[in-house]
Input
Amino acid sequence: MINIKNEFLFLLINMRAFISFELKKFLNYLYNGHFVRATKIKKYINNSNNKKIHLGSNYNLQGYLNSQILSDVPIDICKKLPFENNSIDLIFSCHVVEHIHYKEFQFFLKESFRVLKKNGTMIITTPSLKKMVEILYGRDEEKKSKLLSRQSKIIKDNMIKKNSAVQINIVMRGFGHRFIYDFDLIRDLSDNIGFSQCVLESENNLNKFDKNITDYLISKGVEWNLETETYCLVK
Output
């Protein structure tokens, strides 16, 4: 969105993207939703002692019910989750919640709290506004340079120099992002919903939950992790 020239093009591109996505979602749900989805969810639940859900999955994690809204197990996190109360051990989402609106995220948190077992965990990995600002306006030039290097694949205007303000606008307005969070906001929301704990964890320190998540996040690369934080919410 940072390369858009005027408001008309902004509206046109957003409308085209919205219609295309909604059409794909509708057609996929016709094919994979309802009975097909319910059958796959039931099979996973019945055959798993430790029930773990990976939402927004572009990479299948072993031992999880991997779901992406356009996959063969389509789950829309803005709607009621298709699981019974107190039935799930772990819910993991990676770079997903920034793509939905603030009120939709609140609903997603409430639904996750409903379906998690007592002491169940919700792990949210998402771009962090605070982390980006600290790096972009801090004194660690090496980290700043690595974070700004992500602009090379995005900015098409040769007149724009790699810049901290540009990087923040890319994350705020690009990739279909709707809202960018930080730890303080996630913690406040989780407290209000009833989670007993909300902690900030390094991508290197998630083995206590699942080594698969640690390996997956590390594989995303240094630059990607520089703008990313992981929040662990316990019911």
Notes: The mean pLDDT is 92. The longest strand covers residues 116-127.
